Amino acid sequence: MTAPIALTCGEPGGVGPELAVAARTALPELPLFWIGDPRHLPPGSAIALIDRPDQALQVAPDLLPVLPHRFATPNPPGQLVPENARGVIEVIERAVRLAQSGAASAVCTAPLHKKALKDGAGFAFPGHTEFLAHLAGVENVVMMLASPLLRVVPVTIHIALAEVPAALTPALLEETLRITHAGLIRDFGLTAPRLAVAGLNPHAGEGGAMGREEIAIISPVLERLRAEGLTILGPLSADTMFHPRARAGYDAAICMYHDQALIPIKTLDFDGGVNVTLGLPFIRTSPDHGTALDIAGKGVARPDSLIAALKMARDMAAARGR
């Protein structure tokens, strides 16, 4: 790795700042730097202020390298301070610029509080992923949840279940499959990714008896991509896709809606799941949890998911380097 990972502060009133310190303690040799206001870190945190990302590589392993970004005001744990919303957005923008310039090898984002950003700064994006795509000038990206046990991609994400059939178009499914396939090659080092695609309906529609989306929408897309040489299984019955023997037969599971994808991975590896955005020109990972305002500052938040996100960012950067 030639450049360190940029770790954004996320919501300063959440668990992000304290988890950054804990992750540095757990990963002293992993090159990273934290972008945020040092006043928002836990009192007495062992930090080293830097002016440029490359200086993080010379910081002692028992110190958290901090690239300071001044916010409007201090922010007590567990509290949302609207005046600081603009600073949160600026930190993300700064991290992206550093990644695009090559000064950072990847961006790892701490959780946001979307309502706080909307109320405090008029934030117009549903979340991190859409904002990062906007900053990168990319129209279509894919959300992957990944752990050593399973990788899943939901085709439709944060919409009501009743809206899924209408949103599930051939174009969306094809774009999701292509981005996932390319991301597994570029960011995970797989030369010939194997994709398993779930059906929308129980038993993958059972030949049309329980729904026809598999026949009308899913199967034609899969057949077309198989003809191009992609290795794709499905459409498969989702209830038999996630036991150990089934998981051994593919590299990523493509699911039709949010819970179909996220329930399996959160059941198998709740603390080790990482949110990865595929399709960006830079690497982005994030822990798979929220701001946890209710426990912020109490010393009980677990850094496992952030540690996993930083490790995955490191490994993805190495894969791109190869």
From TrEMBL:
<dbReference type="Pfam" id="PF04166">
    <property type="entry name" value="PdxA"/>
</dbReference>
<feature type="binding site">
    <location>
        <position position="129"/>
    </location>
    <ligand>
        <name>substrate</name>
    </ligand>
</feature>
<dbReference type="GO" id="GO:0008615">
    <property type="term" value="P:pyridoxine biosynthetic process"/>
</dbReference>
<keyword id="KW-0862">Zinc</keyword>
<dbReference type="GO" id="GO:0005737">
    <property type="term" value="C:cytoplasm"/>
</dbReference>
<dbReference type="GO" id="GO:0051287">
    <property type="term" value="F:NAD binding"/>
</dbReference>
<feature type="binding site">
    <location>
        <position position="258"/>
    </location>
    <ligand>
        <name>a divalent metal cation</name>
    </ligand>
</feature>
<dbReference type="GO" id="GO:0042823">
    <property type="term" value="P:pyridoxal phosphate biosynthetic process"/>
</dbReference>
<feature type="binding site">
    <location>
        <position position="203"/>
    </location>
    <ligand>
        <name>a divalent metal cation</name>
    </ligand>
</feature>
<comment type="similarity">
    <text>Belongs to the PdxA family.</text>
</comment>
<dbReference type="InterPro" id="IPR037510">
    <property type="entry name" value="PdxA"/>
</dbReference>
<comment type="pathway">
    <text>Cofactor biosynthesis; pyridoxine 5'-phosphate biosynthesis; pyridoxine 5'-phosphate from D-erythrose 4-phosphate: step 4/5.</text>
</comment>
<dbReference type="InterPro" id="IPR005255">
    <property type="entry name" value="PdxA_fam"/>
</dbReference>
<feature type="binding site">
    <location>
        <position position="266"/>
    </location>
    <ligand>
        <name>substrate</name>
    </ligand>
</feature>
<dbReference type="GO" id="GO:0000287">
    <property type="term" value="F:magnesium ion binding"/>
</dbReference>
<protein>
    <recommendedName>
        <fullName>4-hydroxythreonine-4-phosphate dehydrogenase</fullName>
        <ecNumber>1.1.1.262</ecNumber>
    </recommendedName>
</protein>
<feature type="binding site">
    <location>
        <position position="128"/>
    </location>
    <ligand>
        <name>substrate</name>
    </ligand>
</feature>
<keyword id="KW-0664">Pyridoxine biosynthesis</keyword>
<keyword id="KW-0521">NADP</keyword>
<keyword id="KW-0520">NAD</keyword>
<comment type="subunit">
    <text>Homodimer.</text>
</comment>
<keyword id="KW-0460">Magnesium</keyword>
<feature type="binding site">
    <location>
        <position position="284"/>
    </location>
    <ligand>
        <name>substrate</name>
    </ligand>
</feature>
<feature type="binding site">
    <location>
        <position position="275"/>
    </location>
    <ligand>
        <name>substrate</name>
    </ligand>
</feature>
<dbReference type="GO" id="GO:0050897">
    <property type="term" value="F:cobalt ion binding"/>
</dbReference>
<keyword id="KW-0170">Cobalt</keyword>
<keyword id="KW-0479">Metal-binding</keyword>
<comment type="function">
    <text>Catalyzes the NAD(P)-dependent oxidation of 4-(phosphooxy)-L-threonine (HTP) into 2-amino-3-oxo-4-(phosphooxy)butyric acid which spontaneously decarboxylates to form 3-amino-2-oxopropyl phosphate (AHAP).</text>
</comment>
<dbReference type="GO" id="GO:0008270">
    <property type="term" value="F:zinc ion binding"/>
</dbReference>
<keyword id="KW-0963">Cytoplasm</keyword>
<feature type="binding site">
    <location>
        <position position="158"/>
    </location>
    <ligand>
        <name>a divalent metal cation</name>
    </ligand>
</feature>
<dbReference type="GO" id="GO:0050570">
    <property type="term" value="F:4-hydroxythreonine-4-phosphate dehydrogenase activity"/>
</dbReference>
<keyword id="KW-0560">Oxidoreductase</keyword>
